[in-house]
User: Which sequence fits this backbone?
């Protein structure tokens, strides 16, 4: 019997759904690992709490459902309830099942499933699919342009050798220079052309390098602050590519601020994060936050597409390249924006021993 209990407990501990068990007095007696993550606290602190204390700031329906399940001795299901934990709100689906003994409710088994997390995953998958489609179209277009561009440059070079008139040579050199400029633009549109050389790096060293590079541009009216989580372990990544990706986003923030305002570089550890259909035990979240005018709502769904920009002098490639570089590290960039608070969030998995990095 003990072996069976151990097996059942191991199963519960590895579920992605939060499982809570309440006794007949509605005191918490058990909480699995997913429940600890959802409630942002350990079972050691939470077990023994009454439901009224556990859900005191949350949707009243949570407690009402529990009490009804106890009184009626029937399962109850409720959707899209607000759970308040640690100064942030979660949207959850709630399920309560009475466990009977001698026809009386002895315990209540509660399942809590985070709904907004599923919505975020669906949004990620849709975003990645759209970006991959756009990237394939752009790469095809870039390849089609590069071939005649090379012929145009070669013809201009041959013509330059045949001409004696310096004024006419100026025209051929303009053609060659513009061909080279377009070649560079096509290379950028094609995105990263080499696989990342992943090594163990400290993400804060990357962020500090980005801060130094931005400050070196001499924007006297710009303040760059940091808020780092020192507990974040090293992650496997290409340091140069990480610098490039984050620098592209930071430069975007500087341009949005016109060199006057505040930028915050922030890191936090996240647990049980799903990125690209794969679930990771640990991930680092890097936020680049600015207090600029924000991104127009019409642009929000397009900002990571190549050639999409809100500036007259912009190429629209910086964010697209950043997303491609982060994608190569099994990560993702998200953005939220309102006037005075634009946040670009980079999620990167922290591969622990025994996990497959999908390289």
Assistant:
């Amino acid at each position: 019997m003990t072996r069976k209990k151990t097996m059942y407990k191991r199963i519960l501990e590895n579920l992605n759904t939060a499982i809570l068990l309440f006794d007949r007095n509605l005191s918490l007696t058990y909480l699995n690992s997913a429940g600890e993550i959802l409630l942002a606290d350990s079972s050691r602190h939470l077990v023994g709490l009454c439901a009224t204390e556990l859900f005191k700031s949350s949707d009243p329906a949570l407690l009402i459902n529990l009490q009804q399940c106890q009184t009626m001795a029937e399962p109850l299901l409720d959707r899209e309830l607000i759970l308040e934990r640690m100064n942030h709100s979660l949207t959850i689906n709630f399920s309560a099942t009475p466990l009977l003994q001698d026809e009386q409710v002895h315990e209540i088994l509660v399942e809590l499933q985070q709904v907004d997390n599923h919505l975020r995953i669906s949004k990620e998958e849709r975003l990645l699919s759209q970006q991959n489609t756009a990237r394939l179209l752009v790469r095809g277009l870039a390849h089609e342009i590069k071939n005649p561009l090379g012929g145009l440059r070669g013809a201009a070079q041959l013509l330059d050798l045949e001409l004696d008139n310096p004024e006419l040579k100026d025209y051929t050199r303009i053609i060659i220079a513009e061909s080279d400029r377009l070649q560079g633009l096509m290379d950028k549109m094609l995105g990263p052309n080499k696989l990342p050389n992943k090594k163990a790096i400290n993400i804060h060293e990357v962020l500090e390098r980005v801060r130094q590079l931005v400050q070196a541009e001499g924007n006297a009216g710009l303040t760059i602050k940091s808020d780092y989580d020192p507990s974040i372990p090293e992650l496997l990544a290409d340091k140069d590519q990480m610098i490039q990706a984050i620098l592209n986003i930071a430069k975007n923030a500087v341009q949005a601020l016109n060199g006057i305002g505040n930028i915050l570089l922030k890191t936090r550890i996240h647990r049980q994060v799903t990125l690209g259909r794969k679930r990771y035990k640990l991930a680092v979240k890097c936020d680049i936050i600015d207090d600029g005018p924000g991104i127009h709502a019409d642009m929000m769904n397009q900002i990571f597409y190549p050639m999409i920009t809100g500036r007259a002098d912009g190429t629209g490639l910086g964010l697209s390249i950043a997303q491609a570089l982060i994608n190569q590290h099994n990560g993702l960039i998200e953005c939220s924006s309102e006037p005075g608070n634009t946040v670009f969030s980079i999620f990167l998995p922290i591969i622990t021993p025994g996990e497959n990095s999908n390289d």
Q: What stands out?
A: The two ends are 42 Å apart (CA to CA).
